[in-house]
Amino acid sequence: MWFKRLKALLLQRCPVCLEGKVFHSLLGMNKECPVCGVKFDRETGYFLNSMFIAYTIGFLILIPSAVWLYFLNASILVFTIAIVVECLILWPIIFRYSRVLWMHADQIMDPRQPDVHEAPDRQPG
Ligand SMILES: [Zn+2]
Question: Residue 119: its pLDDT value, please?
C-alpha cells in the first residue's frame, strides 16, 4: 500500500483512488478526480496548508544553491538573480508537489472513500 501511495504521489495522482490525475495542465488542477470523482478541494482554504509544504520544499532546495553561491564568492547581484531564477524555474514543480503532498498527508490522517461526497444521506459533522 505504501509503495502504491508513494508511486501515486510521485506521479501526482489522486490521494483516494491513487489513479486519477490531479493536474490537467502545468498549473491547472482538476476540481474532481477524473477516475473516482472525489472533490480535491475538501473545504474553503483547504490548500493553505500546502503553502507551508511549499515553503519547506523551496527552502530545502534553495539552501544548497545559496551555500554554493556563497562559497563561489558571488556578488549580491549574481546571488539574487541566481536564486530568483531558480525560484521561478522550480515554482511550478514546488506548487504541484506541495499540493499533492498535502492531499496525500491529509488522506492518511483523515481517510475518505471515493463516493463519500455523493452519498445522499450523509450528515454534516
Ligand atoms: Zn480518485
Answer: 44
